[in-house]
Amino acid sequence: MFISPKDNKYWIFKLDQSKREFIIDRILSGTNEIELKYEIKTVPKNEIDGKVLFLYQNDLTKNYEFEYEATINKTEVIRTESGPHSFRIVFDQVKKIDKVINLEDVKYSFKNSTNITKSNRYLNLNLNSISKVEFEAVLYGDIFFSRTIFLKLYETLPYEHKLAFYKIIFDLNPYEVKLTNDHELLLLKLENYIENYILNPAKLFVESSEILKKLVDENSYEKIGFNTTRRAIDYLDPQVNYAENFISLYNNDLFDKFKQTYENFKETESEFKKLFKNMPSPVTLT
Q1: For residue 148, which of 106, 188, 116, 111 has the smallest C-alpha distance?
Q2: From CA 90, how far away is CA 32, in angstroms rounded?
Q3: Buried b / exposed e across 230-254, counting CB within 10 Å, b at 16+?
């Protein structure tokens, strides 16, 4: 028996390369209705209908990318007495989205991002249910902005700075560090940390090196460095370049732009907060 769609569910459907090529060929031939067939071990308990985003792994970059959207028109399970069941799914309104979206760019807007590229354990089918707000994060770019910018910035920190900031988060909630999920608060703490422990010391170091350069001749300046356990001398110039890179990477404009952009995301942010309620930020020391 076929199931009529209700358009009230949202899915990510992972395609292998052959099925992606099949979809492209069908679209190029002038049709927007596509039928795919699978074998599944377990019959779905709930109806599979609604809207879907197709995900595939780019063979060249190995990145997971969203390229097409569709509506699930019909689904049918043909039961067998033994062995897997035959599953038929028909999509219509298949079309290319405005631009290819890299999963990496929107992964922090998915509640179960680690499961997206895995098969559904109940169906043995690359189909995962998502919420409307997650679906629209891909389709319209309405991402979970505060969570995304916080985690992306946090992941750029060197290990030593991650460890130091981790301790600050621990002080916010000493019983369970990962329960800290107020991303606006975390972003504010991260802004203060970067300014006080990265930007200001880096600027002071660069300015001091410029003063030192004026006090000694060029030959002597090139020999100035730091003793380290790894090698005899860690010369000054590479360290200055390292500090200048920090200044360039962690500039205050990043946070100013966030504060300006956040005003346009308030309604979406509130929807994401409902979805991620009681869900911790994946802050790690890896």
Answers
A1: 106
A2: 10
A3: eeeeeebeebbeebeebeeebeeee
